[in-house]
Amino acid sequence: MTKEQLSKRISRTKTYQPVGRINCKDGFHVSVQAGNGIYSDPRLDGQSQYAEVELGFPSEQIPELSEYAEKEDHKETVFGYVPIDLVVDLINKCFHTCFDDSARLAGIHSY
Fold it and tell me: For the chain, what is the domain count?
């Protein structure tokens, strides 16, 4: 996954309309959001690329995200202004079993 692909996946058309969380085949999941009212850069909806995004409520601890966490328990917090390059690296290196490609390409997101 590239940062352009991730930006496109999380770009929303309406404020306060969450996009589906990232669900991995190995059971890992995390919410990745960007836009108006979200801890992202830019804080605008419908952008083609984001430099920083908000992650939330992952299914397991992610040590690389500790400095961005609002609370110590990673499963019960959000992570603000996480560099999109870090998120892409985590997805590509640690969670390479993410996504059902056919569903992602069709624009279907799991919740």
Answer: 1
Give the number of other CB atoms < 10 A from CB of residue 90.
19
pTM (two decimals): 0.80
Residue 76: inside a domain? yes
Specify if 110 maps to a domain.
Answer: no
Q: Is residue 22 assigned to a domain?
A: yes
3-class SS of residue 84: helix
Print the domain residue range for 24. 3-105
Tokens 């909806």 sit on residue? 45
Tell me the per-residue pLDDT of 28-51, one tens digit each, with 9 for 90 and over: 888 999 999 899 999 999 899 999
**Nearest partner of 47 among 72, 84, 10, 89, judged by Cα:** 10
Helix (H) or strand (E) holding 29: strand 29-33
